[in-house]
Amino acid sequence: MALAALLASGCSVLEEDRIDYKSAKQINRLEVPPDLTQLARDSRYALPGASVTASGYEATAAARPTGTAAPAQIGDVRIERAGNQRWLVVDRAPDDLWPALRDFWQENGFLLTLDQPQLGLMETDWAENRAKIPQDIIRSTIGRLFDNLYSTGERDKFRTRVERNAAGGSEIFISHRGMVEVYTTERKDNTVWQARPADPELEAEFLRRLMVKLGVSQEQSKAATAAGARPAIARIETVDGQPAVVIDENFDRAWRRVGLALDRSGFTVEDRNRAEGTYFVRYVPPDANPQAQERGFLGRITGWFGSSSAAQSGPTRYRIRVTATGERATVVVLDGNGQPDRSATAQRIAQLIANDIK
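and the corresponding structure tokens:
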């Protein structure tokens, strides 16, 4: 594991030449870390998705704007920000954007494991940023023959959520999830994968690159992404005897920001009903998830990876309900039957949402 070398490199992930993702399926013997919450979906929630191809983007190229406007609105694309969350607002319908989004992730080295235009959800495979691997003299001479032996000890995946806004355009959210490989013994002969925090700056970089894909220049995209944050307030309160997240925003913004918070926090969003303000999710507490183990250096060469000995706990279904009056929204956690949930897990879920929205 080359994690120590990675930390010593000290390079910013946002530098243009410091992002070079390769999907785990595109690199021989690159281990895929376990997805802690993407469990097998109930078939009654499954919707048929289109095939994952890079075709169709040319059909939208002619519609790209060529002119420029004020920094807040560049052609038909703008970026908005609240707290550490950013998203794109594009004056195009989600159906028109979907082929370009597929093409975008494939151009950046990812494969897609989820492609559901009906739900507005797209998710990449786990991938490694190969640009983080130090380019020392050993790797530059013989490393290319054994390139798969080099690893950063980190994997990333990204979810894209597309919401149709009231004007008929689209709001695009990109959320990051990460895993890091850590030693479990003092002898450093065994490792496990653990979740690491979402990286808002990495999300912002891919939003900036997507702006370029949609017709914005490099200079304009950098200026727009660097714009200051609009303050937003989210806090935990007790409502009718149960914890609730109170957000000082209207329903539209609160609904979208809660959806992004759920994506970042690793929930499996099975369905959503915007008219009722409800997300249907499955959640597994972090300490209930099995960790896949790797058998050290020999495992890297042969691919013989150990299986987890921990028993997998089943996921629990919840409903996340968003209601609003004017510029104040309330988010509560309900159980799978739609009844108020006052358990410790419900309190943890509310806190996760509040921490991400702040």
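(Above: one complete record from the training split.) Residues 94-107 form the longest helix (14 residues).
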